[in-house]
């Protein structure tokens, strides 16, 4: 029983952190642009493909693995700049329905591009050799890669929290998020802040793609399956709140993992029940946005 | 080729108006009834699917274009209708086919009522979008657990219905016969939706879309009308699904995922959601694009995604809106000259 509980705990935390790596950029852009970027998962998927192409199937070491993830982050960040200039910039003052549908179009476009470059075959990437084995924790075998994903998620969360709450850049971003017009009158270059946020969010998606690519088979649809969890986390956590998203991701991961272990024949259903409960119980999320909204 | 002709023909009517619309409708009707003689079975199948997609898109647009609510999980309703009909035919529920269709529609409307009562009052916008997506995904999971519904493999292996009217029977087993039934049923549904949109009910919907607060001031029960709109929309989507099952003769989980939910959104926006006929124009254009790009992996997504982004950024009122604008410009010049 303990071994099963340990297994559920670690697996749940690992999927929770995987969700968080994808959801963090999503909630960041939402907080600042007020656009729910449906294409976020597609850029995550492109990041995974970039990592696969640059790093190959067998990463040499954990450092080269992280290096490859950073390359993917840079590449997707650059794509983010392009997307911002071509599409997102024009969506800032339109009804949110249009923004949702346009970013959905973007998602299809990215999936199509991935299909035409890499084909529809599945690829696999191995975890780096240092973490490619399992250790025994309380009678249950936990893969070290799982621990690596958990650690990466926590480090990313702490880094985002520090940036948002203890630095000038974070203060400026929160100001713009609260009231772009007022921030503009105080001499903040709002356009540059928005652009930087989009690039950072996309880079985060690319990084997540690089880090999580050994987690599952790589196909053009990997984005769509991940981003749904990310949406749920963002909605449960409270749109735009990184803390709320972090908590919601952990909850989702644990519920999903418990569901898969104890009720395997009905796998994957519990998180939807959880989402429905949260939406009815706390329609504005665990940490609703403060200030104007 | 014939399909593009309708796309072009239907695209040019828009509100260009009363003069052209009857002509185009009559041409489309003649084409639809002659299609079994003109087209090979493969193309006829596409025409039938386009009809079904048109109804599906119209049902979505009743919600979005006329009431201002966006559902991102409309495939759930479609799937309910499709799976119910498929099960009824496969396991021989001993019901007349028309009753099966009616029950499918009512089932869709009832589920819309349940969701509407619980969620529509509290949730709007992005929360509603995510909830509808999640509910559809949950439905797909549930269907995947039920052996009688074919789990992951889909439900197939059923015959098209034979309708028994006592005095005479109508055998729809052959695809051409079912096609004619499909055309008539679709026309009736489209007519009913047209009537809803142009009735006082439709006016209340539009008042809510324009400004929910002001609609409330003039005495419209906003929450109630939103739920009614959601019910009509869900019921119609379920009917579209119900009509599709005997046409495709297999119902699969591909029809329940959230990509399937976006089909009506694409069609409505591409054709123009501000016009009643827009979703139909969109469905026809979309089928044509898909037909041309079918043999290149990835190309159809690139085309559809790219078109969608461009439509939103450049012509948010779709093909019909764009035609109307061009027409106004031409007419304006003539007027001045």
Descriptive notes:
The complex is a heterodimer of chains A (293) and B (337). Chain A has a single domain, classed as Orthogonal Bundle (ABC transporter involved in vitamin B12 uptake, BtuC). Chain A has helices at residues 2-33, 40-55, 62-86, 96-118, 144-166, 168-178, 180-185, 190-212, 222-237, 242-262, 270-281, and strands spanning 134-137, 140-143. In chain A, 71% of the residues lie in helices and 3% in strands. Chain A has eleven helices and two strands, in the order H-H-H-H-E-E-H-H-H-H-H-H-H. Chain A has a two-stranded antiparallel ribbon with strand order 1-2. Chain A is mainly α. Chain B has 337 residues and is mainly α. Chain B has a single domain (2-336), classed as ABC transporter involved in vitamin B12 uptake, BtuC (Orthogonal Bundle), CATH 1.10.3470. Chain B has a two-stranded antiparallel ribbon with strand order 1-4. In chain B, helix 1 runs antiparallel to helix 12, helix 3 (41-67) crosses helix 12 (278-293) and helix 4 (75-90) crosses helix 10 (222-248). The two termini of chain B are 37 Å apart. At the A-B interface, helix 4, helix 9 and helix 11 of A face helix 6, helix 11 and helix 13 of B.
Provide a compact summary of the structure.
The complex is a heterodimer of chains A (293) and B (337). Chain A is mainly α and 293 residues long.
Give the SSE order of chain B as H and E letters: HHHHHHEEEHHHHEHHHH
Please identify the structural class of chain B as seen in this structure.
mainly alpha
CATH architecture of chain B: Orthogonal Bundle
Please tell me how large the radius of gyration of chain A is.
Answer: 19 Å
Bulk shape of chain A: globular
Percent helix of chain B: over 70%
| Widest sheet: strand ordering of chain B | 1-4
CATH class (first level) name of chain A = Mainly Alpha
- The overall number of domains of chain B is 1
Rg of chain B:
20 Å
Helix fraction of chain A, binned, reads over 70%
The topology string of helices and strands of chain A comes to HHHHEEHHHHHHH
Low-confidence runs of chain A (pLDDT<50, min 5 residues)?
A: none
CATH architecture verdict of chain A: Orthogonal Bundle
Q: What's the count of strands of chain B?
A: 4
Query: Can you tell me the CATH topology of chain B?
Result: ABC transporter involved in vitamin B12 uptake, BtuC
Main sheet summary of chain A: 2 strands, antiparallel
């Amino acid at each position: 029983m303990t071994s099963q509980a340990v297994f559920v705990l670690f697996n749940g935390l690992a999927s929770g952190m995987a969700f968080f790596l994808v959801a963090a950029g999503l909630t960041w852009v939402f907080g600042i642009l007020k656009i729910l970027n449906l294409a976020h998962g597609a850029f995550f998927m492109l990041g995974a493909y970039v990592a696969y192409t640059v790093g190959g199937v067998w990463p040499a070491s954990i450092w080269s693995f992280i290096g490859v993830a950073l390359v993917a982050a840079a590449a997707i960040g650059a794509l983010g700049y392009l997307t911002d200039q071509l599409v997102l910039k024009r969506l800032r003052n339109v009804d949110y329905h249009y923004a949702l549908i346009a970013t959905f179009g973007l998602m299809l476009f990215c999936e199509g591009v991935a299909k035409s470059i890499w084909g529809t075959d599945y690829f696999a990437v191995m975890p780096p050799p240092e973490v490619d084995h399992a250790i025994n924790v309380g009678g249950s075998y936990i893969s070290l890669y799982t621990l690596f994903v958990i650690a990466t998620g926590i480090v990313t969360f702490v880094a985002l929290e520090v940036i948002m709450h203890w630095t000038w850049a974070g203060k400026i971003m929160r100001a713009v998020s609260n009231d772009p017009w007022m921030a503009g009158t105080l001499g903040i270059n709002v356009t540059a802040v928005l652009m930087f946020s989009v690039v950072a969010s996309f880079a985060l998606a690319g990084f997540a793609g690089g880090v999580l690519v050994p987690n599952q088979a790589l196909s053009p649809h990997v984005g769509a399956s991940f981003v749904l969890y990310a949406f749920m986390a963002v909605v449960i956590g409270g749109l735009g709140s990184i803390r709320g998203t972090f908590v919601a991701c952990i909850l989702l991961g644990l519920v999903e993992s418990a569901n898969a272990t104890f009720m395997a024949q009905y796998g994957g259903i519990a998180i939807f029940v959880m989402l429905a409960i949260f939406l009815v119980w706390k329609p504005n999320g665990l940490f609703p946005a403060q200030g104007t909204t | 080729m014939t399909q593009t002709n309708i796309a072009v023909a239907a695209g040019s009517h828009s509100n260009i108006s009363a003069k052209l619309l009857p002509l185009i409708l009559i041409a489309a009707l003649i084409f639809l009834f002659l299609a079994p003689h003109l087209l090979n079975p493969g193309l006829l199948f596409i025409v039938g699917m386009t009809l079904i997609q048109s109804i599906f898109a119209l049902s979505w647009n009743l919600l979005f274009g006329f009431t201002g609510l966006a559902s991102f999980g409309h495939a759930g309703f479609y799937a309910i209708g499709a799976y119910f009909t498929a099960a009824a035919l496969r396991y021989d529920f001993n019901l007349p086919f028309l009753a099966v269709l009616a029950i499918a529609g009512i089932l869709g409307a009832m589920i819309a009522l349940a969701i509407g009562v619980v969620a529509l009052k509290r949730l709007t916008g992005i929360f509603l979008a995510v909830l509808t997506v999640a509910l559809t995904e949950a439905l797909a999971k549930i269907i995947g657990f039920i052996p009688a519904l074919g789990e992951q493999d889909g439900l197939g292996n059923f015959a098209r219905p034979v309708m028994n009217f006592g005095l005479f029977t109508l055998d729809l087993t052959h695809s051409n016969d079912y096609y004619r039934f499909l055309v008539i049923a679709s026309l009736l549904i489209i007519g009913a939706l047209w009537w809803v949109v142009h009735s006082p009910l439709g006016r209340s919907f539009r008042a809510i879309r324009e400004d929910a607060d002001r609609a409330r001031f003039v005495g419209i029960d906003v929450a109630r009308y939103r739920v009614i709109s959601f019910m009509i929309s869900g019921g119609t989507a379920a009917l579209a699904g119900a009509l599709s099952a005997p046409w495709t003769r297999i119902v699969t989980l591909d029809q329940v995922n959230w990509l399937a939910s976006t089909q009506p959104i694409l069609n409505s926006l591409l054709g123009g959601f501000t016009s009643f006929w827009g979703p139909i124009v969109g469905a026809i254009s979309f089928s044509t694009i898909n037909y041309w790009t079918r043999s290149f992996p990835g190309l159809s997504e690139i085309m559809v995604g790219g078109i969608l982004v461009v439509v939103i950024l450049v012509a948010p009122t779709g093909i019909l809106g764009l035609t109307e604008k061009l027409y106004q410009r031409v007419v304006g010049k003539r007027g001045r000259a």
